[in-house]
């Protein structure tokens, strides 16, 4: 019996139920992709004993490289080897954000997590990331007025389908009960990947890339912004974002990333030690 014949035989009521069943199984399938039921460690894939906010098993979490609040550059949050206040990057460059911190060093399993989030079609990973960042935020004791993600260009959004910083920031704002603002800061220029460029190229690459519309000026006035990104590399992106936000009235821009790209930026006085360490 084909579908058309079946339609004729089935009473209207039954057809409605069938449609409803189909719809609910479709919704089920979609929600399973977005939020899988079988809760597994995002790193090793082992079953977790129960549903938890941060989906890492104890074994994997133990191996992750956290950045200590006391052992990082006071400005950009890069992990430091030596007992210095500022990394070489911050000693030699002017940044427009007030302070930046990240939960982890961008390496090993953390790198894989970011990769899976961005390219592995697993947007649900952002949940765990947001909870990790909320925990870090608590330890930092920052007082902020609104959460703003580092924006993506239209081209990147079209290609990837989502902005991972937006996913992270949205959930984080829910956890910490602070307003989420996605429209204020826009990326109006499609830029080369920062990682492929030299320091100077990075600066010019991002010139004029971010924009705050005039209509938000009054809204931003005197506010402390929590700017969110997944990975912080040289600090150029967040600096350009902060510059634009402050130009339009923001009082301060504090940045929180899930990961910080360099293991450590050696300070001048520590360069000799690092060289001998590497060789
Ligand atoms: Zn694990
Ligand atoms: Zn620094």
Characterise the protein shown here.
This protein is α/β, with parallel strands linked by helices and 279 residues long. It has 2 domains: 3-34; 66-269, Rossmann fold (3-Layer(aba) Sandwich). It is built from 12 helices and 7 strands. Helix 6 crosses helix 8. Bound molecules: zinc ion (2 copies). One zinc ion is lined by residues 73, 75-76, 78, 86-87, 89-90. The site of one zinc ion (ZN) has 8 residues, from helix 4.
Summed up:
43% of the residues lie in helices and 13% in strands.
* Structural class computed from helices and strand pairing: alpha/beta
Main pleated-sheet profile = 5 strands, parallel
Main sheet strand line-up = 1-7-6-2-3
pLDDT under 50 segments (min length 5)?
269-279
Q: Tally the helices: what do you get?
A: 12
Number of strands: 7
Fold-level CATH name of the largest domain: Rossmann fold
Helix content: 40-55%
- SSE pattern, N- to C-terminal: HHHHEHHEHHEEHEHEHEH
Shape: globular
Which percent range describes the beta-strand content? 5-15%
Distance between the termini: 75 Å
CATH class category label of the largest domain: Alpha Beta
Give the tally of structural domains.
2
